[in-house]
Write a structure and sequence with these properties.
Helix 2 crosses helix 14 (329-341). By secondary structure, the protein is an alpha/beta fold. It has 15 helices and 12 strands. Strand 2 (73-76), helix 5 (84-96) and strand 3 (103-106) form a beta-alpha-beta unit. The strands form 3 sheets. An 8-stranded parallel β-sheet has the order 11-9-7-6-3-2-1-12. The protein has a two-stranded antiparallel sheet with strand order 4-5. A two-stranded parallel ribbon has the order 8-10. It is 40% helix and 12% strand. The mean pLDDT is 92. The longest helix has 17 residues, at 139-155.
């Protein structure tokens, strides 16, 4: 199965597919959500939590919702995984139920963030924490880790991995990144991340460098609320941004964090919602032209301060292409659709992102 994870379902070009899409279909493609969020009969609390609840199969009711909301893809969590046979059937059914190849993604970094490797019934050996690989100083170890993860993700029908972490772990009090990072040396992180991506790509799996512009020098947790980084842009360029600059051409996507960049931007917004940072710095100054996605919009830093509808519209206006897991998906979808219909978001801007997404999927 190596190399076959991202085969498009159509021989049409991305441009041809885009031309034939309705506005509703285009807006839906912007969203990558939890599988449970397309079961509208489930309680709101169940569909909000990735830890307490999870569908392990695609029901007829969910297929019906998927026809109405043909989203860009799904991020699966441990609670969506029960067994080898079940997982293969689930990813196959998701693909068969989507007219456009869906992104089937997972957080599979190795170490403590490994949804598949930590599911005992799959019997997968965890490649270990990236910190331990970084300590070896051997980039081949990182390549092997990426290749190993890519191999089993492809075998189970995934197309995308939200990895590698390219944060430079410079703060010993960091409770979020820690062992997930390759280390505290930005050049080592650059080299290791590039090799890890090579490994994923060898197996046909696409990856994401995260969490832009850097979550390594933080103490708090954006899963809970705002976290601030007090470095200037010039200071970030000498450390946190080195792995990004080194890997932007190779990266399939860049994931933007919800951290507040108090001295690098002037808009007072989290990085994920900052047009100044995304369009001005990432696309403008650094010249990145690929797909940009938010970190999960259901995280505390966003849901507590903005809500699903407002955050999704601001995030898209800021320059993100993919809106990842808003807490209330239907509300977020309707908000973005309304913004397009009211011409607050131009069709040109919408088409730009959808075209990037289609090309990322291999069309």
């Amino acid at each position: 199965m190596a190399g076959c994870a991202s085969v498009p379902k159509s021989t049409q070009s991305a441009e041809e597919i885009l031309f034939n899409m309705s506005t509703e279909e285009k807006v839906a493609q912007l969203f990558v959500i939890r599988l449970d969020q397309i079961d509208f009969k489930e309680s709101t609390e169940n569909t909000k939590s990735s830890y307490d609840y999870g569908h392990t199969k695609l029901t007829s009711r969910m297929k019906s919702t998927l026809r109405q909301y043909p989203v860009g893809g799904f991020c699966l969590f441990a609670n969506n995984i029960k067994s080898k046979r079940q997982l293969k059937k689930l990813t196959r059914n998701i693909k068969n139920s989507c007219k456009i190849l869906p992104m089937i993604a997972v957080d599979e970094e190795g170490g403590r963030v490994a949804r598949l490797a930590q599911t005992k019934s799959l019997g997968i050996q965890n490649v270990g924490a990236m910190e331990e690989i970084g300590k070896t100083g051997d980039v081949e170890k990182a390549r092997e880790a990426g290749n190993c993860i890519g191999s089993y993700l492809a075998a189970y029908g995934f197309t995308f991995d939200f990895a590698p972490v390219v944060d430079v772990n410079t703060n010993p009090e960091n409770i979020v990144i820690g062992s997930r990072a390759f280390g505290s040396d930005p050049q080592l992180v650059s080299d290791m991340a590039g090799a890890f991506l090579d490994g994923l790509h060898a197996q046909g799996i696409k990856g994401s460098i995260k969490h832009f512009p850097g979550h390594g020098d933080t103490k708090g947790d954006t899963h809970e609320d705002y976290v601030a980084v007090d470095k200037t842009w010039d200071e970030l360029l000498t450390c946190e941004l080195i792995p990004y600059k080194a890997n932007l051409k190779q990266a399939d996507t860049v994931m933007v964090a919800h951290v507040m960049m108090t001295k690098a931007t002037s808009d007072g917004l989290p990085a994920s919602l900052s047009k100044e940072l995304i369009m001005g710095k990432l696309r403008g100054e650094l010249g990145y032209q690929g797909v940009i996605l938010t970190d999960a919009l259901a995280m505390g830093a966003i849901k507590k301060n903005f809500g699903s509808a407002k955050a999704s519209v601001i995030a898209f206006e800021a320059g993100n292409d993919i809106l990842l897991i808003p807490e209330d998906f239907p509300l977020a979808y309707e908000a973005v659709l309304s913004a397009v219909k009211e011409e607050k978001i131009t069709m040109e801007r919408l088409d730009e992102s959808v075209l990037r997404i289609l090309k990322l999927k291999g069309y």
